[in-house]
Amino acid sequence: MTITRLGSAGDGVAETPQGPVFIAGTLPGEVVLADLGARRGEGIAATLASVESPSPDRVAPPCPHFLVECGACALQHMAMPAYHAWKRDRLVEAMARAGQAVEVAPLVAAPPGTRRRADLALRRVPHGVALGFHQRGASAIADLSTCHVLDPRLVALFRPLREVLKRLGALKREGSAVLNLLDSGPDLLLRTDGQLDAAQRSILAAFGIAHGIPRIAWALGDGVMETAAQAGPVHLMLGGVKVAPPPGAFLQAAPEGEAGIVAAVRAALPRKLSPKARIADLYAGIGTLSFPLAATHRVAAYEGEAGAVAALDAAARKAGGRVEAVKRDLAYRPLLPAELDSFGVVVLDPPYNGAQEQVAQIARSKLRHAIYVSCNPVALARDAAVLGRAGFKAVSAVPVDQFPWSPHLESVVAFAR
Known about the structure:
Elements: E1 5-6, E2 12-16, E3 19-23, E4 31-40, E5 43-53, H1 80-97, E6 108-109, E7 117-125, E8 128-132, H2 152-155, H3 158-166, E9 174-182, E10 185-192, H4 198-210, E11 215-220, E12 226-230, E13 236-238, E14 241-243, H5 255-268, E15 278-282, H6 290-293, E16 298-303, H7 306-319, E17 323-327, H8 337-340, E18 345-348, H9 356-364, E19 369-374, H10 377-389, E20 393-401, E21 410-416
Parallel strand pairs: 3-5, 6-20, 10-11, 15-16, 15-18, 16-17, 18-19
Antiparallel strand pairs: 1-2, 2-3, 4-5, 7-8, 7-9, 9-10, 11-12, 13-14, 19-21, 20-21
């Protein structure tokens, strides 16, 4: 087969009379041999057997786990210039589907080895504990020895974390470990399928001290988190404000990516926005955008997750109160037009599925300016089309790649009417 394009998941796509065939590890222009598998949506999934005619953009993957075991990366076999062009084109295509004519800026790219957050799967196996990401399309875990995406300080914890987990009876069969690299050092949240007793807490406390981990939290399955061991305070600087995130908190994936998003949002603020105008930050998290925006305007930050709101509120109070934290689940209780109309601009950074309910209210409001931060081009295209029908036009669009070698893309798009 001949690969004609890359699909949204980063797979090569070959067009056939039976429908598209999706083949991981291939690039446009390549002629390949593949073993056909099961139906996948309107097409067929296939496994690459050999590349008969390679693309000039093909390179040797740097990671030994790529595709063979680990399913986290999709495009390590693609040269960076071509990969970056494809990432930018994802935003170009999304805005075209939405009917929004806008010049897309050059890609802002975080380099490999800078990701500061990892959600690792754990599984007890005969030789110890497997730790890593899931294999592509499977429940099996790639037992990682290295990772070229993560910050090396997190990768350095793989081996000692395996060793301490072998000693924890709380990990009976399966669990997870969320590692966040804060400004205070690594922060660890363990979820296990068994209870953590006092002796195991002591083991974790010693582990934390030995490896510079100020806080280790734990939860039984999906239950309530609690602090298992803490040797010191934790913090992350956001817009010059010290925030103490809850265990396992959502962070922008890479510092360079966060900086690119913040810069794009601030640059997208209306030039004539009065200093007295208020900004609404929707899906605010722990204040990644709220605190930088508060440098020039008062901000009302809306977030539905209780731990994130508490962290944001505590930091805002210490910083002087230019940010008001409000707990509100915007999927069920979006801000209504009468509420939205009191703001000069609305910034929204919704989860992967977008902000369908909230965007519908923005479209009905009298707002003139909205800045949308997206992590999903498909949801962005849908929501941008709704805004377009309400008279909003995209005036700037910045793609940000903080997930190297993956199909995921962050975008900052400003709309005005």
